[in-house]
Amino acid sequence: MVHLGAILGAAFAATSAVSARPSPENSLGSTKKRAAAAAAGGGPDCPDYASHATSHAHEPFSSGRYRLPYQRPSASCRRFQAPEVEATIEAMRKLVRDPDLFRLFENCFPNTLDTAIAWHGLGEGTADEELTFVTTGDINAMWLRDSANQLQSYRSLLRPVSGKDKASPSSSLSSLASLFRGTINLQARYIQNSPHCNAFRPPAESGLTVTGGFGGGDIVYPPVAHEVVFECKYELDSLAAFLQLSYDYYAATQDGAFFGKRFKKEEESVGDDDVEFRSNWVLAVEAILATAEEMTRGTYGPDGRTLFSPYQFQRPTTVATETLPNGGAGSPVQAGTGMVRSAFRPSDDACTYQLFVPANMMLARYLAACAPIVAQLGRRHGAAGDIPTTASETRLSNGDAAHTSVNINVNDLFDDDDYSNYRQGHRTRYYHELALRMTDFAETVRRGIERHGRVHHEVYGNIYAYEVDGFGSHNLMDDANIPSLLSAPLLGYVDRHDPVYRNTRRFVLSHANPYYMTGPVINGTGGPHVGTGMAWPMSLVVQIMTTDSDREIVALLQQLLSSTDGLGLMHESISSHDEGVWTRQWFSWANGLFGQMLLDLRDRKPHLLAKSFQ
Ligand SMILES: *[C@@H]1O[C@H](CO)[C@@H](O)[C@H](O)[C@H]1NC(C)=O
């Protein structure tokens, strides 16, 4: 058997090593909240999870025909403990009748908390800047997209945060809500530092150092700080991922105040007269808008001259999808489409054409979804609700919200003209304008997608293209990584019953999609990242989450269950012809998504959890 995962793992070990300075002060950033240290397991006595997850030996085995090992680390070696997650596993034990399917859930759902929370603590010298460093699992760096998705698996377990109640369980550093806030805060730092980059090193406060990265000599414009950035591939969906995570947290907790927090150092006063009133989160949103607006620029100016590309990337490599043509600018893009360029895909492979449709869908949806978060910051301190704000959302059939509009009447804000009101009015106007800029831009992107991102396919009719260039060329395919075309309803961009989506879905799951893999082991989409012949379990999970058909879901669950090579975890990819050939034994994002999918079935199709797969 060839274990590509083991080979890739070894390659990473050679280029990237993580080492922790075991200082309790450093691990917390503040001596005040020692409790969090106890929550972070994974000491030197704990097994290396990369090898742990490659072993079949962990008893007890599941009692079904696949005899899947128990792959969770022992309780003291888990990186973060969340009682809600343990309670969910226990509740699912009663609902999922098939012993192998339950074992898969039990191994996969907590995997991010068990293995990928490398550090959770406070920012240097602040009392409330929670920070969470989430690795992908087998790579010791934090990807914006992966970490947002990794946490998303636990979104349904968040509960409303009560802002006044300091003793509320969700305000403690050891809460799941704190883990979300910490990830949002750290992403906000990264995005302000380097909005074109996809993967980052641990914050100084963690005491962790990660070597490697930068693919051995990447040339990147704009230049970036190597001590912060691990890799700098500009992927539009990384920016959208931050907005998605922010919206997920806000929608579940209603914790609007969090997004206005400034995290000033303890010794600095947070005066009302501060010129800079914007929070870290708001500054990150500004950075996203500035980056995305700039990346709507086309390759040529009105006079035919080639314009300077705001982002350029070149890597010395033999792999075509790891570098960009045209001096690092990528393939030419038509100006004025309304769509935003992306240099790379969520697979970290170069875009063939830079108007990458799935990331534009994700940006359009989550820019609009986050506008109400910005708008509510314009309310008076301590007088929440005194500004007439109406945020209306159209619900999609899958429970996600599609269009969001914000409507604030600024004239209602001023009841007298003293200075305090003037200052408050200034802030309110700022937030109002920022929220409108977000909804307007989201609408422009959406119109661009519908005008330039759709094509007529002679077999499937009107479908979304994977990528277009605005000149009329398009790339018809789908890749397993989210955002994908298949995942468009999960992104909340389109209803899963929408006719264009339905056509697109039939296309994606057919041999007309050059990256749809079939065989006796597993049928699903893959992509150029690992190569042809390899189907990604993640795509089967998305296929389950975007269909109403019981037959389709059962067939897909059967494939997921039977193709783990007996290891009981989600791989990155599996040969559609040989179960023993796979990549990545430890892929936290896919594991979490599998768990999220089964919880979705519990709510949507509970009878399927009672099925036997023996
Ligand atoms: C994949 O699809 C083909 C038909 O294209 C079918 O014959 C095969 O059984 C499927 N494989 C699995 C694992 O279900």
Automatic annotation (TrEMBL):
Checking InterPro entries in the record gives: 6-hairpin_glycosidase_sf, 6hp_glycosidase-like_sf, GH125
* Residues of the signal peptide: 1-20
Q: Does this entry carry the keyword Nucleotide-binding? A: no
Question: SMART domains under this entry?
Answer: DUF1237
Q: Which UniProt keywords apply?
A: Signal
Its domain of life reads Eukaryota
Its recorded name reads Glycoside hydrolase family 125 protein
Source organism per entry reads: Sporothrix curviconia
